[in-house]
Design a protein that fits this description.
The chain folds into two domains: 112 residues, no CATH class; 157 residues, Tetracycline Repressor, domain 2 (Orthogonal Bundle). The longest helix is centred in the middle third of the chain and has 28 residues. Helix 6 runs parallel beside helix 8. The protein has eleven helices and four strands. It is elongated and about 95 Å long. Strands 1-4 form a two-stranded parallel ribbon. A two-stranded antiparallel sheet has the order 2-3. It starts with a helix and ends with a helix. It is mostly helical and 283 residues long. The mean pLDDT is 93.
Length: 283
């Protein structure tokens, strides 16, 4: 029943019995009075018996320090252990304080090693979903659909004008120049994509495709500042780029399939846009 109650507390966002015990220990460390020691005792005994050994997260001593602390002076620890004394309680107190110092040292080291991490909570992840019917014209009000490769935003890349990123990607993938031009001039994204999948591809295309896609995204967003603003508005959010029309190399399909390279490249492009702005503002 205690285990079920803990699960209910956890799902409700409230402290479990283990959490309440740790909080009681914290109060005892701040003010090691008999009253607070008794609070620790009550909180420890409220933990389901089979879970008490895990409450401190100490693989060596397990819950022994707690059992020593909650035992009254002159009583055997655990009923058949050593006799609890004031000195034993002081040793337990030092054990907890040393643990706190170790945690603080670990946090300080973490702050030093990850000093370039954002301070505070980041922006929640966003999902860029594939549209059943791709847009033929940009919407009146721009939204996250601008992140999609099929979004209509003509741009120039190496002297060629491509209607969408998908047009550019598959045209550049084609080994033959005539195939490139046919794909580039396709009326729809679907036609460009299907045509690209039917023609011979450049040698080692799978090895260079990620870099090419990065260059195409850079061209798209630097030539359409209104689209860049939408991308920048996502802050530091992780971008999950979903879909079934592009290969798992590009899309996010869960932890076992899908590498989400499109999401990663969008995040890279976003960082490049912001870096350019920061450098320009710095003079």
């Amino acid at each position: 029943m205690g285990e079920v109650q803990d699960e209910i507390e956890s799902l409700s966002g409230r402290p479990t019995s283990s959490g309440r015990c740790l909080e009681a220990i914290r109060r005892y460390l701040e003010e090691p009075t008999e009253e607070h020691r008794q609070d620790v005792r009550a909180a420890y005994l409220a933990i389901p018996a089979h879970r008490r050994v895990y409450v401190l997260g100490d693989m060596d001593l397990q819950d022994i320090p707690l059992r020593k602390l909650i035992t009254d002076h002159g009583e055997p620890v655990g009923g058949d252990g050593p006799i609890a004394t004031a000195e034993m309680h002081r040793e337990v107190l030092e054990y907890f304080r040393a643990g706190d110092r170790g945690v603080e040292r670990s946090r300080e080291l973490h702050r030093l090693l990850y000093a370039d991490d954002p301070q505070g909570a980041g922006v929640p992840a966003i999902t860029s979903n594939e549209r059943v019917t791709p847009l033929n014209e940009p919407p009146e009000r721009l939204d996250l659909s601008v992140l999609r490769n099929e979004f209509p935003a003509p741009f120039m890349y190496r002297g060629q004008r491509y209607p969408t990123v998908l047009h550019g990607y598959w045209a550049l993938a084609a080994a033959d120049r005539s195939d490139h031009d046919h794909i580039r001039d396709a009326v729809t994204v679907r036609e460009a994509h299907e045509a690209g999948g039917c023609v011979p591809l450049r040698p080692q295309w799978s090895l260079v495709r990620t870099a090419v896609m990065a260059a195409l995204l850079r061209a798209k967003f630097t030539q359409h500042l209104e689209l860049a603003e939408v991308l920048l508005s996502t802050g530091d959010a992780r971008v999950s780029y979903t879909g079934i029309s592009e290969s798992p190399h590009w899309t996010d399909r869960g932890p076992r399939e899908g590498r989400n390279w499109m999401g990663r490249l969008l995040e890279l492009t976003r960082a490049e846009l912001l870096a350019e702005r920061v450098v320009n503002e710095a003079g």
